[in-house]
Amino acid sequence: MNQSPNFIEQGISQQHLKTVSCVNVLTLAYQSLGVIYGDLSTSPLYVYKTTFSGKLSLKEDDEEIFGVFSFIFWTFTLIALFKYVFIVLSADDNGEGGTFALYSLLCRYAKLSILPNHQEMDEKLSTYATGSPGETRQSAAVKSFFEKHPKSQKFLLIFVLLGTCMAIGDSVLTPTISVLSAVSGVKLKIPELHENYVVIISCVILVAIFSVQRYGTHRVAFIFAPISTAWLLSISSIGVYNTIKWNPRIVSALSPVYMYKFLRSTGVEGWVSLGGVVLSITGVETMFADLGHFSSLSIKVAFSFFVYPCLILAYMGEAAFLSKNHEDIQRSFYKAIPEPVFWPVFIVATFAAVIGSQAVISATFSIISQCCALDCFPRVKIIHTSSKIHGQIYIPEVNWMLMCLCLAVTIGLRDTNMIGHAYGLAVTSVMLVTTCLMALVMTIVWKQRAITVLAFLVCFGSIELLYFSACAYKIPEGGWIPILLSLTFMAVMYIWNYGTTKKHEFDVENKVSIDRIISLGPSIGMVRVPGIGLVYTNLVTGVPAVFGHFVTNLPAFHRILVFVCVKSVQVPYIGEEERFVISRVGPKEYGMFRSVVRYGYRDVPREMYDFENRLVAAIVEFVETEPGTEEEEGERSNVRRKKEECMEIMEAKEAGVAYILGQSYAKAKQSSSVLKKLAVNVVFAFMSTNCRGTDVVLNVPHTSLLEVGMVYYV
Q1: I want to staple 169 with a disulfide (CB 3.0 to 4.6 A). Which of 187, 319, 370, 485 is the partner?
Q2: Across 20-29, 515-524, 620-629, least confident range
Q3: By C-alpha distance, which of 415, 418, 401 is closest to 488?
Q4: Angstrom distance (rounded) from CA 80 to CA 687
Q5: Contact 583, 593 (CB under 8 A)
Q6: How far is CA 268 from each of CA 103, 312, 421, rounded to the nearest angstrom?
Q7: Residue 136 has pLDDT above 60, yes or no
Q8: Are 309 and 254 in contact, with CB atoms under 8 Å apart?
Q9: How far is Cα of residue 477 from the mean position of the Cα atoms in its chain?
C-alpha cells in the first residue's frame, strides 16, 4: 500500500502503517508532539511546587532536593519509558490503545464479551484475529476461572469502568491545573495582582478552550506541534542553563541511592510528598490512548529521543535552581527562568497548557464514544468535526459538562496544590488499572510465563501502589474530588449497562418464533402493501416482540420486510465491506430479510451516512449472489428469478421505506428491591428520557417513522 501524505494526515490506525518509511515515521513523530505530549510536557509547571507543599522542609545539605529529583528521574524512566513505551504500547488492539483496547483484547481472547448479541460470524472479521490457538497452562487457568465464575466477568467490567471514569476525572483536572499554573506565573511580574484576577483569567481561558471545541482541533492542529516543540526546547535549554549556573552536582542525583537517603531522612513526610512526584508522569495514559492516531514506532521515537531527554533536563535544571534558592520553592518554575526570556516562555507556557488541555478533552470525547458503543453510557450527540482526519469528534453535552466541572474546581479550590493532590490520585488509579489489565493481557493474549507476569506486576505495581498510597493520604486535601467524580460516572455507566442488558434479556425471552410467523403463510396473516418496512431490533435471531405488538394493532405491512439489528462488536473498526450481514428469513416468497449492521467500538456512524441506499444495495447483492436450491429448475430460471426479485426490491424502495422503532420503557418488577427500583424506575428512566433518541442516532427521517410503545419489566 502506498503511504501518501494524505494517508498520513488521516491518522489511520497502526494496522495500515506496517511498512512506513523512515521519513513517514519522523513525520508522525513530529505530529504526535502536538497531540499526545501536551499534558506530559506541562508537568514541570507544578511538580516541585506540589511536592513541597506539605510539611516537607528543605535543609542546607540539599538532600531533599536531590532525593526528589532522583525519584522523578527513576519514576519517569521506569514507568513512562520502560512500562509504557517499551511494553504497554505493544499491547495494541489493531493499532488502537487505551483501557478499552486492553479490555477488548481480553474479551476476544478469553470470550468475556459483555455485548449480548455476539455471533460466531463476528469472529471471522479481519480485525477479530485472536492469534494462535495454542494455550499455556496459565492462560487456560485464567480463562477457566472467568468461565466458572460469571461474577468475575462483571467485576472485571466494573474495574475497567473505574479506570475509565478516573480517566474522565483526569480530563477535568488537567485543564484546571495546567491553565491555573501557567497563568499564576504572571504574579511574579505583577505582585500586586490579586489572586481573584488570576482565577478570573484562568476561567476565561478555560471557557475559550471549551468554546472552540465544536470547530475541531484540525483547524488549529498545524500550530500544536511547533508550539510543543518550542516549549520542550525552551524548558530543556533553561534546564541546562540552570544546571551549569546553580549546581552542576545535581547530576549525581541520578543515582538511586538518593531515593533511599531521602526516605530515610524524611520519613512519613517524604512518603506523603511522593504524591507530588507522581505528577511528573501525568499524560502517559494519553500517550497510550492516542496510539490509534499514530504508529507505535513514531510515538516511541518521539518520546525516547526528544520528549524524555527534554523533560529530564528541565527537572534537573529546576532542582539545581532550588538547591540554591530554597525560599522560591512555591514559585520555582518561573523563578528559574532567566529574566530576558521570561515573557516569551510565559506565553509559550500558556499555549502549552491549552494544548495539554485539548489533548485530554479530545481523549474524553473518544472514551465516551466507546462507552456508548459498548452500552456503558447513555446515547449522546456525536459530531464529526473533520471529513479527513480520523477520530476527530465533538460531543456537545460532554463538552459543556466538562467546562462546568473545570470552572467549579478552579473557582472552588483556587490552589494548584490541592488540585495536584486530586490529580495525583486520578493518575495513579488509572495506571494501576492499566497494570492489572496488562498482566491479564500478558497471560491470556501474549501467553507469557507466570514468572514474567509476576515480575511485571511486582516491579511496576509496587511502584504505583507506593504513589497511590501517598496520594490516598491526601484525600481530605483534594483527593476526594476524583473519587466523587469517578463514582458518579461509574454509577451512571453501570446503571445504563444494567438497564440495557436487562432490556435485551426481556427481548430474548419474549421474541416471536420464526416458525410461528412462517406457519401463517406468505402473507404472514397480514395485508402486504407496496414498500419496504425496516423493523429495528436488538436481536440477531428471531422476530422481536415489537413486531408482534405492531401487527396486533395494525394488521398490515410492507411487501418487503427487513429486520435490522445495529450492533457493536468488540473490535476497534469494521470496514464497509464487512459492515452488513444479510440473511433471508423464511422462504423466498415471504419477502423477509435480516440485516445485521456491525460497528466497532471506535466507529462512529456519521449523520449523513446514506444508510437506506447502502442497505438496499446490500440486500440486492445478497439476492444476486445467493446460491440456488434443488427445487429450482436450471440456471436460467434461477437467474431470471433473481432479477425479478431484485426488481421487486427496487420497486418497493421507490414506493417508500418505513422505519418501525420500539419506544420502550423499562420498569422494575414489583418484587424488586428498593435499590433496584431506584436504579431502574428513577435513574435509568431519567437517562432514557433525556438521552438521544434511537431515531436520531440512526438518522431516521421523521416522515417515515412509526414508533411502537412497549413496557419492559426487568
Answers
A1: 485
A2: 515-524
A3: 401
A4: 38
A5: yes
A6: 37, 26, 16
A7: yes
A8: no
A9: 28
Say what the pLDDT of residue 703 is.
82
Secondary structure letter of residue 282 according to DSSP: T
Amino acid at 149: H
Q: How far apart are CA 220 and CA 222, in angstroms?
A: 5
Among candidates 580, 105, 92, 100, which has minimal Cα distance to 375? Answer: 100
Distance CA 183, CA 186 (A): 6
The enclosing H or E element of 703 equals none
| pLDDT at residue 149, as a whole number | 86
Residue 284 has pLDDT above 50, yes or no: yes
How many other CB atoms are there within 10 angstroms of residue 299's CB atom?
27
The residue assigned the cell 488537567 is 174
Which of 289-293, 475-479, 537-541 is the least confident region? 289-293
Q: Which three cell numbers stand for residue 117?
A: 448479541
Pair 291, 19: CB distance under 8 Å? no
With a CB cutoff of 8 Å and minimum separation 6, the contacts of 670 are: none
Give residue 399's pLDDT. Answer: 93
How deeply is 384 buried, as exposed, middle or buried, from its count of CB atoms within 10 A (0-12, 13-18, 19+)? middle
Q: Is 97:602 a contact under the CB 8 Å cutoff?
A: no
- Give DSSP secondary structure letters for 509-558: HTPBPHHHHHTTTTTTTSEEEEEEEEEE-S-SSSB-HHHHHHHHHS-EEE
- Is 50 exceeded by the pLDDT of residue 355? yes
Q: What letter does residue 229 receive in the DSSP assignment?
A: H
Residues in CB range of 612: below 8 A, 6 or more apart: 653, 657
How many Å apart are CA 422 and CA 426, to the nearest integer? 7
CB 601, CB 371: distance < 8 Å: no
Please tell me the least confidently modeled range out of 89-93, 343-347, 366-370.
Answer: 366-370
Query: Residue 692 to residues 274, 365, 536: CA-CA distances in angstroms?
Result: 44, 16, 16
Closest CA to 199 of 352, 347, 409, 410: 410
In whole angstroms, what is the distance from residue 218 CA to residue 34 CA? 11
**Helices within 118-246 (DSSP H only):** 137-148, 150-184, 195-211, 224-246
- Per DSSP, the residues of 302-329 read HIIIIIHHHHHHHHHHHHHHHHH-GGGG
Q: Positive or negative CA dihedral for 282, 438, 570, 496? A: negative
Residues 411-430: b if buried by 16+ CB within 10 A, e if exposed: eebbebbbbbbbbbbbbbbb
Residue 209 pLDDT greater than 50, yes or no: yes
Phi–psi pair at 384, nearest 5 degrees: -80, 120
More confident residue, 130 or 655: 655
**What's the confidence (pLDDT) of residue 218?**
61
Instruction: Give the Cα separation of 221 and 216 in Å (integer).
Output: 9
Whether the Cβ atoms of residue 383 and residue 212 lie closer than 8 Å to each other? no
What's the whole-number mean pLDDT along residues 255-266? 92
Q: Would you call 441 exposed, middle or buried from its count of C-beta atoms within 10 A (0-12, 13-18, 19+)?
A: buried
Polymer length in residues for the chain = 714
pLDDT top residue among 711 and 279:
279
**What one-character DSSP code corresponds to residue 614?**
H
Asked if 566 and 597 touch (Cβ cutoff 8 Å), the reply is yes
Is the pLDDT at 169 greater than 70? The verdict is yes
For the stretch 107-120, pLDDT in tens is: 888 887 667 777 77
pLDDT at 301: 93
Residue 690 has a pLDDT of 84
Maximum mean pLDDT: which of 19-33, 300-314, 571-585 = 300-314
